[in-house]
Amino acid sequence: MGTFTHTPAPTDAERLANAKATALRRLNQGYEAAAGPLIRDYPESERLSWTQQQNEATAYQAWIDSGSEGDAPATPALSAILAGRNGADGTETLADLVAAVLRNAEAFIAWQTFTGTRQRGEWAIQQAETPEEARVVTWEGLVGG
């Protein structure tokens, strides 16, 4: 004789928790997809150095803007990147690399508006009182796309 297993229907709280988890996963997927053009094919390990690169580039640019008086600020990360980019016969200068890093940083900073939008969506999902309220929060709905 077979064994009978009774699986109770999910509770309202369980349905709401599942809907919130699914909505948040979809929201984050939408955000990541939208960020794709910004981060392109940069590997995560490189993205982890962006703050260091920006800090060094900002300090170096401030030094240039102040008339290059005194010693240049230390740029160990940028100097290493420059050595790798130039190889044995490259012509890119530290100032060129600083300008490129600062352009990329500006684009990334502008993107942070969307980081706030994603967080607003997360809050709306967390505050949802029904599965339907959670499901209607989408990346596309938040950015009007």
Produce the secondary structure layout.
Blueprint: H1 12-39, H2 44-47, H3 50-65, H4 76-86, H5 94-127, H6 131-135, H7 139-143
Helix pairs in contact: 1-5, 3-5
Descriptive labels:
71% helix, 7 helices, 145 residues, 0% strand
What's this model, at a glance?
The protein is mainly alpha-helical and 145 residues long. The protein contains 7 helices and no strands.
Shape: elongated
Low-pLDDT segments, ≥5 res: none
User: What value does the Rg take, in angstroms?
Assistant: 24 Å
Q: How much helicity do the residues have?
A: over 70%
Question: What's the mean pLDDT score?
Answer: 93
- Number of H/I helices: 7
Could you characterize what this model shows?
- With 145 residues, the chain is mainly alpha-helical.
- The mean pLDDT is 93.
- Helices cover 71% and strands 0% of the residues.
- The chain is built from 7 helices and no strands.
- The protein has one domain.
